[in-house]
Amino acid sequence: MLRTIRFNAPAALLVAMVSAAFAPAAPAEETPAPSTYGWRGNWTGLYPDATPVTEWSREPKGPIWGLTCQAAKPADGAPKSGRPHDKGLIVDWLVLGPLPVADAVKEFDKEHVPDEATLSPNTDDKVGELAWTRLEINRKITFGPTELEWANLGGDTKLKKNRIAYAHSYLYCERAGKLAAVVDHVCGLKIRVNGAVVYNKPQTVSALGAYTRISNCKKELVNPHSGMFEFEVKQGWNRVLAKSNSDNRDGWNALQFSLRLADAEPVSYEEKNIVWATPLPERTNACPLVVGDKVFTVAEPDELLCLDKKTGKILWRRINGFFEATPEEERKASPVFAQIAPLAAELEQTYDYEKGLELRRKVRDLLNGVDKAKYDIKWDGHLAGHFGIVGFSTTPCSDGKNVYVFVGNGVAACYDLDGKRKWITRVPADLVAYSSSPALIAGKLVTNLGTIRAYDAETGKLVWEQPKAVGGVASLIAARVKGVDVVFTQKEDVVRASDGALLRNNPRKIPNDTGWSPPVVIGDVMYHAWGGFGLNVDDYSGVEGDQWKPKMQGIDGIVVNKLPNGEWLDKWTATSPLVHNGIAYLVDMYGTLYAVDVKAKKLCYRKDLDFQPICHYNAIPVAACPALGGKNVYVMDNQGTCIVFESGPEFKQVAKNHIGTLIPRVWPVPPQENISYGAPIFDGKYMYVRGEAHLYCIGEK
After folding, report:
1. What is the pLDDT of residues 563-597, one digit of tens each?
2. How far is the C-alpha of 169 from the C-alpha of 70, rounded, in Å?
């Protein structure tokens, strides 16, 4: 987790709402036959009978709202101007230096420019022979960067040790109040706001350093803190002065820092149509699940939570780790399990993030002491690098009586709706790699962890396994095709649910990436974004026997990978298509929407949606699948923006909505909660959206 939530009881905002009893199914011709629920609600994302609101919002009311910054000195009494902050990042500075000094650490508090507290420079102002020059920070929206957004005061010059530099910016705040700051700095850093020193560390403070470290911290169950401080700002113009040094040792010569701002806690919000927002222990990519009067969601790495649908109150929480999956008879073989039991019980009642990490580390270390070969996770390197965004948690499934959970490190379990565990088991894996959300079909829970396996839904006993089918990196899809219950994998293999027979060994499969999304099955037709450039449409209506050969109808040329400036951009998609009334809606990871007439095999329209997501090595800009709520389509980015538009062959936007919840961060990453990586779920008049730190119920109060 990139923040610490102080949440000491499993409760949330208590507000009234009325809702239907079960997640609404789409019409028969547009939904798979299995009467179970899981990923995307019914594995299609279609809720044509839903009547959700189309407008909602949640925005902070403090000084971060509308904050702008600029390098140039404003005139006395000048109105608001400059560039908006970029997710808490000051993006426009004036820089002076580097200045050589005798010892940059020992002399850090010495004033190397007269009257530091009163400095208010303008572009091209000089101090001796040095001039203040402009530095702009421009964040490029492209997936994969590892580096933080640094303010580099040394420019392209190869720096020597014992150097000092200054950076200055003017902030315009529409509202006075207190801001919270989080900062990594390579060497020393001093910050003044309106002349007063609010932060002063003469040597390195860096808890994150690069976005790759997010995964390392998640894996190791640690949460180191960057530099953190708070300061007051006034309404109108404010001066921010940063002073940085290179070290007095060789090899530590960078003059750079990464600084993020947010409203200080407690944050107040202006809201519209937010029924409740329940704080949760950790993030997930999984969709929520509505069953009767309850909503189920998961949290990293292995938690299942049940919430009251009316109030958002957490009713129960269950951990599904290696300890819980160890049978009682095995626990009797070592006294260490008696030490673990109270730790596991305490963890299930602990909502403090730091305390939860501490308990998890203790349980992990004790288990490894019992049998390291059995309990220590053996990581696939690619998953390990992206674990901060991928995680272990997957979307749960339900048959209306029980709820089933599968954890990507190798645990599956079943609970009744009141939280009583019916069974739990280890799912074997020699190497923990990308897993998938499970499928519940034909009385079996089907999982993917390298090998496709099915467990009896009532007993948890292994029924069959199919090692020849390739699962891929996305959800398994439950469907009924030609009257046969089957499971589709992300690699388009098809496995029969009754006995695990491989009915379809997809000839398109190649060892390399072909996309990150699962298919969708409507009736006897499978639709799937493939290879980042097209749509596979496979008609299974004519298949028979044990070797299925569908009619393959690919639609290519949908995605344009060249930017207006001619630059190539890999436009992979993490989202499945939404197929409704003959049109397939696809969204690539940068938020470009493609509407395809499936029968005519042509593009109806292409639209760059008005998103401002975050993207880096452990953040995918748009990952939530589009969903149909009533007559409208809902598409979300990972920063809480949702575009609502009418379904049909022309793009007609209905609304643009935003949830701007701020999280108390301990690293200099964007301060807003990441919303949403899982598709929204509809239930009558209400919509449920999973964020990094909350589950939201959206509708009229």
Report:
1. 778 787 778 888 999 999 999 999 999 999 999 99
2. 6
Longest CA pairwise span in the chain (Å):
86
Per residue in 505-537, pLDDT (tens digit) is 999 888 776 778 999 999 999 999 987 668 999
Mean pLDDT of 634-657: 98
- Looking at per-residue pLDDT, the higher value among 269 and 557 belongs to 269
CA-to-CA separations, 282 to 304, 357, 396, 404, 437, in angstroms, rounded:
11, 11, 16, 19, 18
Residue 587 main-chain phi, psi, to 5 deg: -130, 125
d(CA 171, CA 83): 10
Tokens of 665: 């961060």
Residue 402 CA to residue 417 CA, distance in Å, equals: 6
Query: DSSP states of 84-119 as a string?
Result: EPBTTB--EEEEEEEEE-S-TTTTTTS-SSS-GGG-
525-528 long-range CB contacts below 8 Å, 24 or more apart? 526/488, 526/492, 526/550, 527/577, 527/579, 527/584, 527/598, 528/492, 528/576, 528/577
Which among 513, 503, 469, 463 has a CA at the least distance from the CA of 483?
503
Taking residue 498's Cβ as centre, other Cβ atoms within 10 Å add up to 16
Going from the N-terminus, what domains does the chain have, and what CATH number goes with each? Answer: 28-60+272-698 (2.130.10.10), 68-266 (2.60.120)
SS3 state of residue 45: coil
Q: Is the pLDDT of residue 278 over 90?
A: yes
Q: How far is CA 659 from the centre of its chain?
A: 14
CA neighbor of 40 nearest in space, from 374, 478, 496: 478
- Residue found under tokens 């469907």: 479
Give the CA distances from residue 338 to residues 21, 295, 331, 361, in Å, rounded to whole numbers and listed in that order: 41, 33, 8, 16
What's at 690, amino acid-wise? R
The torsion defined by the Cα of 547, 548, 552 and 558, in degrees rounded to 10, comes to -110
d(CA 310, CA 594): 36
Cα–Cα distance list, 477 to 160, 438, 518, 534, 576 (Å): 58, 8, 7, 20, 11
The pLDDT tens digits for 384-395 are: 999 999 999 999
Q: Which DSSP state fits 140?
A: -
For Cα atoms 392, 397, 403, give the angle at the middle one, nearest 5 degrees: 100
pTM of the model: 0.93
Per-residue pLDDT at 402 exceeds 60: yes
3-state secondary structure of 506: coil
One DSSP character per residue, 358-407 reads HHHHHHHHHHHHHHHHHHS--B-HHHHHTHHHH-SB---EE-SSEEEEEE
Q: Give the whole-angstrom CA distance, residue 571 versus residue 281.
A: 33
Q: For residue 459, how many other CB atoms are within 10 A of its CB?
A: 12
Q: Is the pLDDT reported for residue 23 higher than 60?
A: no
Residue 60 has pLDDT above 90, yes or no: yes
Torsion angles phi and psi, residue 213, rounded to 5: -70, -20
Q: Interior CA angle at 406 toward 404 and 409, to 5°? A: 160
